[in-house]
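cron nightly-structures :: item 1 of 1
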Amino acid sequence: MATLHETVKSLFAAATASVLPGGVFDANDTNQRDWGGYDWAKEIGLIDDNMQIVPHAKLSWKDSTAFQTEHPALGAERESVEVYVYDQLGYSTIDQAIPIVKQTLHNQFIQNTDDRQIAKAFFVFVSGEMMAEEYHNRPMKFVRFSIVHIR
């Protein structure tokens, strides 16, 4: 059985496979010296022979915080994950991937993971067009989700 983080990564990878051929990665698993930037991407083949970035996504998890502290009967926690979507030029691929990312996790229950009894995910935010410093200012957007879970 997989952890919550692995399950969420697998859900995004399966849902976006046709739009993001580079795949989905967890930022914690990337080369930490450049947050999974250009050097990391080149090492694992996300930079092709023409120095083009293959469209892909990275997940960045934020620390858990207490949820419903005024009535802690459930002992629930809230965690957030941001899904960063990258492309070489323009936002057409990114704009195709963003709705898929939103639909994949918004309002979804996730059960039977190794480290959580149950979790429910909620879409929170989509960024505007941004330039990814870690990829020499290539186009990027991110989607933020809040996940409430019980351990």
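cron nightly-structures :: done
The mean pLDDT is 89.
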